[in-house]
Structures are given as structure tokens and as C-alpha cells.
Amino acid sequence: MKKLIVVNWKSNPSTLSEARTLARASDSKGVVIAPPYVYLQALSRTLKKAALASQDVFWQDGGAYTGEISASQLKNLKVKYVIIGHSERRRLGETDEVISKKVGAAVSRGLKVILCVGENWNIHRKGVAAAKRYVANQLKKDLRGINSLRFAIRDSLTIAYEPVWAISTNKGSRADTPKDAAQMITHIKRILDSRVLYGGSITPKNVKSFLSQPEIDGTLVGGASLKPEGIKKVIRLRNSL
Ligand code: PGA
User: Which of these is catalytic: 88, 119, 124, 162?
Assistant: First the structure.
């Protein structure tokens, strides 16, 4: 099976026509595209091979919640995956408690969850043991919502390990090393029987070195997915493995 590539456009681009261009460049098997909510419907008609993801979901299924989008609404748009707990949302105040509710709501409505975890620089510099403890704790808290549900969750859950300090838009960032990323991913797999991706400054230059680690099941790409030529290259390199 091909390793998975998830592209996260974050709050980009600003027009539908640019979104269509980017989507066409990424439209391949084994690719999941996470555009802003406003493009989901149009892109569900454009895409032929890639699957669609949303970048978030609300934990209640409809009701008086201004501005929120429910799991059922996404499911009805043929959205297959949802990213939950991205560090950029955590930084804006999203707690593990809210994340666990979102995970529960998404899984119970039949969406596949891509749960983001990862330590920030302050924890990272305390050493490997501290980072491992932190990530284990995030997983425990964030998955509380589905522990109580009797689902075969292996197929519904993908973890994205994204060391916060390695995300390209964070000041002073640089990608983790493939070996260290693989070590953390092995740790996550000991806790949880699930697919684990690596995300954090993935580019056409380094994607092969990460994806050739057997423990790494795929990648979550941010910045590099906003350039059609760049993402095409990333996908080509993944296909060549
Ligand atoms: P990056 O972003 O590839 O730009 O580092 C990854 C992410 O935040 O998902």
C-alpha cells in the first residue's frame, strides 16, 4: 500500500480558482486534501482520485452553534477525513477535552480522524523521554472520547506526529531528523495500533528521507502543498518508493 500524503492548506488560498489549480495538482490516489471549509463542496466535484478532508469539525451534531460545522454536514458533502487537534488550533485555545469530544463525534458519524499530536520546543529540549511522555499524555486525553465507544477504531484513526517546533511557519523551524521522527512514531505505535504520519517542514527535498523510514506511514504537508509544482514533486517522489 502507498504511504499516505495529507495536504493541509490551512487558511489558503483566497480564491476558488486557485483552490482548483492546487487541487488538480494534488489529485492522485493515496492523497487526502484538506482545504478550507468553503471549498469543500466545489472540490468534491473537481477531484477524481484524491479524498477530501476538513481541517476541523464541531463536536455537536447541529443545533444553536453559530459558525460551527458538524460531522454529519461534512459526511453529506462526501468528506472522508477530518483533521483534529492541529497545533495551530491548540495554540488558539483548543483543549484536549474539546479535541476528545470532536474525535468522538467524528468517529461516531463515520468520518476518519487524523489526530495531530506533538511536543513544542520547550518540551523537546528537555529530551526524548519528556517528549515521549508529553505525546503519550496527549493521546490518552484526546482519545478519551472514543475509548468509551465500542468501535473497531484502527481503520478510523490516523495519528499525525507533528513536532510543533518543526512546522515551517513557526519561527526558527527545521524538520526533525527522519531517525528521531521514526523513533517517536514507534513509541506512538506501541501505545496505539494505528497508522502514523509525520508532519513538519516536509518538502520535495526531504520527503524521501522521511517516507523511506519503515515506521512512517505517510506525511502531512503544509507549506509545500501550496505550490502546484512542489506538491506534484512530493507525490511523484512518494510514488517512486
Ligand atoms: P508545514 O506544516 O509542512 O508547513 O511544516 C505542517 C502542518 O502544520 O500541518
Answer: 162
**Type of residue found at 165:** W
CB 217 within 8 A of CB 225: no
CA angle, residues 217, 220, 221, in degrees to nearest 5: 135
Q: Which residues have C-beta within 8 Å of that of residue 147, sequence separation ≥ 6?
A: none
- Ligand 1 test: best mutation among 4, 169, 205, most atoms within 8 Å of CB? 169
Nearest to 37 by CA among 19, 61, 22: 19
Digit-coded pLDDT (tens) for 141-190: 999 877 655 555 667 899 999 999 998 888 778 888 999 999 999 999 99
Quickly state the pLDDT bin for 5 (edges 50, 70, 90). Answer: very high
Q: Which of 86, 88, 119, 124 is catalytic?
A: 86
What lies within 8 Å, CB to CB, of 17 at 6+ separation is: none
Beta bridge partners of 81: 53, 112
Q: Could you tell me where the beta strands, DSSP code E, fall in 144-194?
A: 157-161
**Within 13 Å, how many C-alpha atoms sit on residue 189's CB side?**
14
CA 101 to chain centroid: 17
CA 195 to chain centre: 12
Tell me if residue 97 is catalytic. no
Determine which residue's CA is closest to atom 2 belonging to ligand 1: 222
pLDDT recorded at residue 130:
97
CA-based angle 24:156:151, to the nearest 5?
160
